[in-house]
Amino acid sequence: MTDVNRHSAGDRRAESGTAGTPEAGGRKKSKIPLMCATILVSEVLVVYFAALVGFGLRPVPFGWVIGGATAIAALCILAAALLPRYRGQARPGIALGWIAQVLILLSGFVMPSMFFVGAVFAVLWGAAVYWGRRMDRELTAWGR
Q1: Percentage helix, strand, coil for the chain under 3-state DSSP, each rounded to 5
Q2: What is the pTM of this model?
Q3: Dihedral angle computed from the Cα positions of residues 121, 99, 109 and 63, in that order, rounded to the nearest 10 degrees
Q4: Which of 68, 70, 79, 95 is the most buried (most CB within 10 A)?
């Protein structure tokens, strides 16, 4: 057995000096998707749980409640898919996330408890965007 066969792919990358590079081409991955996608996926779950509450309370016809919940959930999933993957990349995911926050707040006019839920998630979204961008800036400044 040759030396090449005994070493794993990770060992060969370490020997060649490419270990730890997140992407070929030198682009560094952003921390924004990690922070923001967590919030957006959590919102999808909470919106559908709120739709179940709407089923019991019947503030409007149930078709409207499910339609609104599905639209907001689809927007959250689309926003998560379009978050920037690399540092400095411009993609519409953050703007779509802010639109989702506004829609969740506006759903409070149908079910008043959603004002509180929307406010909490808007604060969490703002913090995730802020800290994700800050981590990207600092990691870039440190050369990592």
Answers
A1: 70, 0, 25
A2: 0.78
A3: -100
A4: 79
